[in-house]
Specification:
The protein has 1024 residues and is mostly helical. The protein is 60% helix and 6% strand. The protein contains 44 helices and 15 strands. It has a 5-stranded parallel sheet, sandwiched between helices. It has a 4-stranded mixed sheet with strand order 3-2-1-7. Strands 4-6-5 form a 3-stranded antiparallel sheet. Strand 10, helix 15 and strand 11 form a beta-alpha-beta unit. Helix 13 packs across helix 14. The longest helix is centred in the N-terminal third of the chain and has 31 residues. The chain is flat, with a radius of gyration of 38 Å.
Length: 1024
C-alpha cells in the first residue's frame, strides 16, 4: 500500500488514491503532521501536552495512549517506543512537505522553480483542534517558518533570473510569488521590473495601480516612496520597452516595525544641547517602543493629533540619556527638526522656545522684527501645529499644567517628555512609558565599557550589588576605570561594609563629565524626590510611615499591601483610602513600583537611601516592631487555619530578611523569628539551613528563657519535627519528649500545645515501633482537640489521620480505611479544593487502596493529590515525591509498568537532587523501582535497586527498623526467584526477627515473611 500525505493547503491523507482511515482521527492527523514537519523524535510527554489541554500531564498521557492504540494499526510509519514517538520515512510513504523541503534545500534553481507549485496553500490550511492551544501555537509558528522559507526561495529564483536576463520566467516566478503574499510591496516591485524589462511597460504601470488599490483597500496606506520612485522610472522608459531590468532608486524610508535605527545626523536647524553618549548601552526595546509610538507615518499628517510619550521614573534611571539617544537615532525622520526644552526652570522655557523661531532655527521671524516674547512663542507654537514632522523633547517636566501649556494640540509634531512624576492625568493625551533598570547583560556591558579590564563574572557581581541602576553603574564603572589597582572583590567588600550610597564611587566625586549635565551623585539624585515628601501633610506623613515599614522588609521583593496596611494596629482600618493614598504618593515619586494593584516593590538602592534618610527622622522608630509583630501575627493566623508554612501568605524573602535582622539585633522577637524561619525551612525541605536556624533558636531560648521554659518546648518540638523529616527518629523522640514534659508540667493535660506534643510523640512511635505504642499518645491528643476544637477542626482531623496511618502500618486495613475516608470527607467539606491537608488525605487513602487489592480505585486519589502538591509545593518537594512514588506503586499494581517507570524515575531524580542518596524517601523509591523491575522480569536491575534501598535503610534507619525488614523481604523474594534459596532464607530470617520484635500481628509483611519461609521449608522437605 502506498500512502501520500498532503500538508500544504487542505490536509489530505490517501492510501492508494483513496481517503485514508487515519482521517477519522483529528488528533491522529495532528500527531502525524507534527512529526512529519518537525522531523524529530519527541517524548510522549511533549506530544501529550501538545495535543491535549488536560488538568495534568498524566491525564494527557492517558489520552495519548488511547489514541496510539487506535492509530498504530492504521499508520505503521508511526514509530512508538516506551519514551518517544517519531515518523519513519519509507519508499511507500510520500509527502508534499518533504518534496518542497528538499527543493528549498537544493541549489538547483530549476528544481526549486518546479517545486514552487507545491505550495498551494498555507501549512494545514483550515485545520484546527479546539482543545489543543499548544498545537495551535506550534501550527502558527510552523506556518510562518515555512512561509518565510518559500519567500526566500522565490527571492533566490528571481535573483537568478535577473542575473540570467530571463525576463519571461522572471515574470512567471514573480506572479506566483505575489500570489503567496499580495500585499508585499517588494514582490510588486520585482514583477513591475520584470514586466518592464520584458517590454511590457503598460503592464508594469498597471501592476503599480493594482498594488496601490490593494494597499489602500486592505491597509489604508499608499505605496512606499521606493515603489513610487520605481513607477516613475518605468514611465520614463520608451514605449517599445527595455531589455534591462530597471533598478529601484535608493530612498530614505522609515525603519520597518521592530527595526532599530543607527545613529545619524540631525535635521538642519535642530536644537539639542548634548552630544551623543559614545558608550550608550542597551535600552533597545525602549528605543523601539518609542519609535513605534512617536515616528511620523508615511501618510499625510493632516488632521493628526500630536503623539506624546512620557518617560517616567526615579532619577538616575537614564530618562534624559534615553531621550538624547532617541534623538540621534531617529531625529533624521523628522524633517522639521529636533528641539530640546529643559523644564527645570519653568520661567525660562518661553525664552528658549522663542529662540527656536529665530533665523538660526525655524526662521519664523528676523532679529529686527522687534517682536515681544509672547508674540515669538505664539509663532513657534503655531508652527508646531503645522503638518511638518518635528520632534519636541520636554526634559525634566514635573508639572502637568506646564506640559499641557506647551503640548501642541495637533499637527506633525511628536513629543517626548522625561519626568520623575510617574502618575499623569488620564485626561492628558499622553502615553506613560515607565523606565526600569537595565537588563543584567546590558549592565555588564556598560561596566566593561567603562572599566575594560573587568571580567564578565566580576562585572556581574558589581551589577547585582547596585541593582542594575544605570547611574550607579556609570559611577561604579567610572570609579573602577580610574582605579585599576582596586580589585572588584575589594570594591564590593567596601560597598557592603560602608553605607552603600556614602561610598565615594557613588557620590561621583571622581566623575569629570556627565553626558546630560546631571549631578553625578546618586544620593543627591534620590534626595530630589525625597524632599517632595511633606511630612507635615497628612498624606506625606502616611507615605513616610509606609517607607519606614517597607525598608524593614526585603528589597526587590513584592510587598502585599495587605501586609503593609495590617502593620497599622493603631490606625482606623476603615481609613484604607488614606493608607492607599500614601502608597500612591510613593509610586508617583518613584520610590515604589506597582507590581499590580495589590503589591509594590522597592529597589535595594532606594531602600538603602531611605534607611539613611529616615535615621534623621523620628517617624520611623516604631516601624521595625510593627513589621515584626505583623509577620508573627499573620503567620500565626496562617497556621491556625491549618495551612503549612510552605505556602506563606507573603513572599518567603520577607520572613528570611526580617528574621535575620532580628537575630542580628538580638531583639525580643529573635527567638520567635528563628523558630518560625526554622519551621518554614523544614516545611520546604531545606533541612540543612533549618538545622542551623533551629539550633540557633535553641541556644537563644536557653540563654533568654531557660531549659524548662515554654519557649524551649516550642523550639524543641520544631527540632523534633525536622529530625523526623530527615529520618533521625530516635533523636526526634528525645526532643519531642522534652517538649511534652515541659508542657505537661506548665500547661497541664487539657491544652492544645500539650495535644500537639502528644500527637508528635505518636507519629514518632509509628516510625520507631512498636506501632501500637503510638495509640495512647494519639488517644490523649484526640480527646483534647475534640474537647477544645470540635471534631471537624483541622487539628482534630490531623490526629484521626495519624490513627489511620498507625492502623495501616499495623495491618488493620479496615480500621485505617475508615479513618482515612472519614478524614477525607470532613476535609472535602471544610477545606478549599487545593488545600495541602486535603492532598494528604487523598494520598493516604489512594495509597491504602493500591496496597489492599484495589489499585485502580486508588489511582484517581493519588493523581489528585499529586496535582495539588506539585502546584502548591513544587515538583521536587518531598511530599510531592512521596505521592509520585505511591502513584508509581499503584501503576505497578495495575500492570502499567511503562508509566510507573516514568513516575518513579522522575521521583528518584527529584529525591537525589533535593534530599540526597542517604534519605528514607530515596530508599523507598529505590525499593519501589526494584518491585517494578522484578515485575517485568529485569532481575539484575531489581537486585541493584533492592540492595541500594537496603544499604540506605541500614545506615539511616538502623539494622533493626521495620523499613530495613521490608527491604530484606523484597530482596529475599527476588533471590527465591533467582533460585538462591540459602541467601534468601538468611535475609528472610533477619526480616522476621525484626518484625517479630517491632511489629504486631496481623501486619501483612510479617505474615508474608512467615509464608515464604514456610514454603521454602516445604520445598526442601519435598525434595528430601
Amino acid at each position: 500500500m502506498n500512502r501520500r500525505y498532503e500538508l500544504l493547503g487542505t490536509l489530505g491523507i490517501e492510501d492508494d488514491g483513496h481517503v485514508s482511515a487515519v482521517m477519522k482521527y483529528g488528533k491522529g492527523c495532528a500527531l502525524l503532521a507534527y512529526l512529519i514537519v518537525d522531523g524529530q523524535a519527541h517524548s510522549r510527554e511533549t506530544v501529550a501536552d501538545l495535543l491535549w489541554e488536560a488538568t495534568s500531564t498524566q491525564q494527557s498521557l492517558r489520552n495519548l495512549r488511547a489514541l496510539l492504540h487506535k492509530l498504530r494499526p492504521l499508520a505503521p510509519e508511526l514509530s512508538v517506543s516506551r519514551k518517544q514517538l517519531s515518523f519513519q520515512r519509507t519508499d511507500a510513504v510520500s509527502a508534499d512537505f518533504y518534496t518542497l523541503q528538499a527543493a528549498l534545500d537544493s541549489d538547483d534553481i530549476g528544481r526549486l522553480y518546479s517545486a514552487r507549485a507545491l505550495y498551494k496553500g498555507t501549512l494545514l490550511d483550515g485545520f484546527y483542534l479546539d482543545d489543543a492551544p499548544m498545537f495551535w501555537e506550534w501550527q502558527l509558528l510552523a506556518r510562518e517558518r515555512l512561509h518565510q522559507r518559500v519567500w526566500d526561495g522565490y527571492y533566490r529564483v528571481c535573483t537568478t533570473y535577473e542575473a540570467d536576463r530571463n525576463w519571461g520566467l522572471g515574470v512567471d516566478a514573480a506572479r506566483r510569488w505575489l500570489w503567496l503574499d499580495p500585499l508585499d510591496e517588494t514582490v510588486h516591485q520585482w514583477l513591475m521590473r520584470f514586466l518592464a524589462a520584458n517590454g511590457q511597460k503598460a503592464a508594469a504601470i498597471a501592476q503599480y495601480e493594482k498594488c496601490r488599490r490593494l494597499l489602500a483597500g486592505e491597509l489604508g496606506v499608499e505605496p512606499g516612496t521606493t515603489t513610487q520612485a520605481l513607477v516613475e522610472q518605468i514611465r520614463q522608459l520608451p514605449d517599445e520597452g527595455s531589455s534591462t531590468l530597471v533598478q529601484p532608486v535608493t530612498v530614505t524610508e522609515l525603519p520597518q516595525p521592530g527595526e532599530s535605527a543607527e545613529p545619524g545626523a540631525l535635521p538642519p536647524h535642530s536644537y539639542l544641547p548634548y552630544h551623543r553618549n559614545a558608550i550608550f548601552t542597551g535600552r533597545n526595546s525602549d528605543l523601539r517602543r518609542l519609535s513605534e509610538m512617536l515616528l511620523p507615518t508615511t501618510t499625510s499628517s493632516a488632521g493628526r493629533l500630536t503623539s506624546a510619550v512620557v518617560l517616567t521614573g526615579m532619577g538616575g534611571l537614564g530618562k534624559s540619556q534615553l531621550a538624547v539617544e532617541y534623538a540621534y537615532r531617529y531625529g533624521r525622520y523628522y524633517p522639521g527638526g529636533v528641539f530640546w526644552l529643559n523644564f527645570d526652570d519653568a520661567e525660562h522655557v518661553a525664552e528658549l522656545a522663542a529662540e527656536f523661531g529665530s533665523e538660526r532655527g525655524m526662521n519664523l521671524y528676523a532679529a529686527d522684527d522687534r517682536l515681544d516674547l509672547h508674540r515669538k512663542t505664539e509663532l513657534v507654537k503655531r508652527a508646531w501645529q503645522e503638518q511638518t514632522p518635528r520632534l519636541l523633547i520636554f526634559d525634566n517636566c514635573e508639572d502637568e499644567n506646564l506640559a499641557a501649556a506647551w503640548l501642541p494640540v495637533s499637527g506633525g509634531c511628536s513629543v517626548l517628555i522625561t519626568s520623575r512624576h510617574t502618575t499623569w492625568s488620564k485626561a492628558l493625551p499622553l502615553t506613560v512609558h515607565p523606565l526600569d533598570t537595565l537588563l543584567r547583560a546590558e549592565s555588564v556591558d556598560l561596566l566593561r565599557r567603562l572599566a575594560e579590564w573587568l571580567a564578565e563574572p566580576e562585572a556581574d557581581l558589581i551589577a547585582a550589588e547596585v541593582g542594575d541602576w544605570p547611574l550607579a553603574l556609570h559611577l561604579a564603572g567610572s570609579f573602577l576605570g580610574a582605579n585599576r589597582d582596586l580589585r572588584s572583590q575589594a570594591y564590593i567588600r567596601q560597598l557592603r561594609e560602608q553605607r552603600l550610597l556614602q561610598h565615594s564611587s557613588l557620590r561621583g566625586r571622581h566623575v569629570r563629565y556627565s553626558p546630560t549635565g546631571h549631578e553625578p551623585d546618586l544620593a543627591h539624585t534620590f534626595a530630589v524626590s525625597y524632599e517632595q515628601l511633606d511630612f507635615a501633610n497628612p498624606i506625606g506623613w502616611v507615605a513616610g510611615q509606609h517607607l519606614a515599614r517597607i525598608v524593614c522588609l526585603a528589597p526587590n521583593e513584592p510587598i502585599p499591601l495587605t501586609l503593609l496596611f495590617d502593620s497599622y494596629r493603631d490606625v482606623d482600618k476603615g481609613d484604607i483610602g488614606r493608607l492607599q493614598a500614601g502608597v500612591n504618593r510613593l509610586i508617583a515619586l518613584g520610590f515604589l513600583n506597582a507590581v499590580d494593584g495589590d503589591t509594590v516593590v522597592i529597589h535595594p538602592l532606594l531602600a538603602a537611601f531611605t534607611i539613611d534618610r529616615l535615621a534623621r527622622e523620628p517617624l520611623g522608630d516604631a516601624a521595625p516592631t510593627a513589621i515584626e509583630s505583623t509577620l508573627i501575627r499573620q503567620l500565626g493566623q496562617h497556621k491556625q487555619a491549618g495551612k503549612s508554612l510552605a505556602t506563606l501568605p507573603f513572599p518567603a524573602a520577607h520572613l528570611r530578611y526580617v528574621a535575620h535582622r532580628s537575630l542580628d539585633a538580638g531583639g525580643e522577637q529573635a527567638v520567635r523569628f528563628a523558630s518560625l524561619l526554622g519551621e518554614y525551612l523544614t516545611e520546604i525541605a531545606d533541612y540543612a539551613e533549618a538545622r542551623v536556624t533551629l539550633q540557633t533558636a535553641l541556644d537563644l531560648t536557653e540563654k533568654q528563657f531557660g531549659t524548662d521554659s515554654l519557649a524551649m518546648a516550642e523550639v524543641a518540638n520544631l527540632m523534633g519535627s525536622l529530625l523526623e523529616e530527615v529520618g533521625r527518629y530516635k533523636d526526634a523522640e528525645t526532643y519531642y519528649a522534652q517538649a511534652l514534659a515541659i508542657r505537661l508540667e506548665q500547661l497541664g493535660e487539657n491544652h492544645l500545645d500539650t495535644a500537639a506534643s502528644l500527637n508528635n510523640m505518636g507519629t514518632c512511635c509509628i516510625r520507631i515501633g512498636p506501632y501500637i505504642s503510638a495509640e495512647p499518645y494519639f488517644a490523649r491528643a484526640l480527646a483534647i482537640r475534640e474537647r477544645l476544637l470540635g471534631p471537624d477542626h483541622p487539628l482534630t482531623l490531623g490526629v484521626m489521620n495519624n490513627l489511620g496511618v498507625m492502623h495501616n502500618y499495623m495491618g488493620n486495613r479496615d480500621e485505617a480505611r475508615a479513618y482515612f475516608a472519614g478524614v477525607l470527607a470532613a476535609r472535602e467539606r471544610t477545606l478549599e479544593p487545593d488545600h495541602l491537608l486535603l492532598a494528604s488525605s487523598l494520598n493516604n487513602l489512594g495509597d491504602l487502596l493500591s496496597r489492599t487489592g484495589e489499585p485502580g480505585a486508588g489511582r484517581p486519589y493519588l493523581e489528585r493529590s499529586l496535582a495539588i502538591r506539585s502546584r502548591k509545593l513544587g515538583a521536587d518537594h518531598p511530599l510531592t515525591l512521596e505521592c509520585q512514588t505511591n502513584l508509581g506503586f499503584s501503576l505497578i499494581q495495575i500492570g502499567d509498568f511503562v508509566e510507573a517507570q516514568v513516575q518513579l524515575e522522575q521521583a528518584l531524580a527529584g529525591a537525589l537532587s533535593k534530599l540526597g542518596e542517604m534519605h528514607t524517601l530515596t530508599a523507598r523509591i529505590y525499593n519501589t523501582l526494584g518491585t517494578l523491575f522484578m515485575g517485568i522480569g529485569r532481575y539484575d536491575a531489581a537486585r541493584t535497586h533492592f540492595e541500594q534501598a537496603l544499604k540506605i535503610r541500614e545506615e539511616v534507619r538502623g539494622s533493626d527498623a521495620p523499613d530495613t525488614a521490608y527491604s530484606l523481604l523484597c530482596l529475599g523474594e527476588l533471590l527465591i526467584a533467582l533460585h538462591d534459596e540459602n541467601r534468601a532464607r538468611s535475609l528472610l530470617e533477619r526480616a522476621l526477627a525484626i518484625l517479630e520484635q517491632r511489629v504486631e500481628p496481623p501486619a501483612s509483611e510479617r505474615e508474608r515473611v512467615q509464608r515464604l519461609l514456610a514454603e521454602m521449608s516445604e520445598a526442601v522437605a519435598g525434595k528430601s
